[in-house]
Every structure is written in C-alpha cells, then in structure tokens.
C-alpha cells in the first residue's frame, strides 16, 4: 500500500490463438463493431462472430475489409 505501481511498458494483443484461445472473442468484437457501423448507416445487415469466423478464419483484417 502506498507504493507506486510499476509502469506498463508493453501490451500483447493476441487475436489469432497464438498465446491464448482469443480468436472467437476477437471475431465477436469485430461483429459487434461491424453491426454498430452498419446500423448507424441504416444498412440492414447483421453478423455474428461465429459467421465471421467461418468466413474469414486465417485471413488478416485487411482481407476481411476488402472482401
């Protein structure tokens, strides 16, 4: 108590199951963001994380955007 916490110098971001099983969480977050953007633009499409994972597993984000 009272001591200053150590400074964070590095953050590891893992979205492809390299360090932990994070790929499904990354696709869920991607689906949420995509759906929010589409709804704001009144586009009647809705995606799930599992759908995006089936369609795009193994691809990088740029390939997903250009699909």
From TrEMBL:
Coiled coil: none annotated. Gene3D superfamilies: HAD superfamily/HAD-like, Putative phosphatase, domain 2. Transmembrane segments: none annotated. InterPro entries: HAD-like_sf, HAD_sf, PGP-like_dom2. This is Phosphatase. It comes from Fusarium oxysporum.
């Amino acid at each position: 108590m009272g001591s200053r916490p150590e400074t964070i110098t590095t953050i590891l971001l893992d979205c492809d199951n390299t360090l932990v099983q994070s790929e499904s969480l990354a696709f869920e977050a991607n689906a949420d963001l995509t759906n929010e953007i589409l709804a704001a633009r009144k586009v009647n499409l809705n995606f799930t994380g599992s759908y995006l994972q089936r369609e795009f597993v193994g691809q990088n984000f740029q390939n997903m955007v250009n699909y």
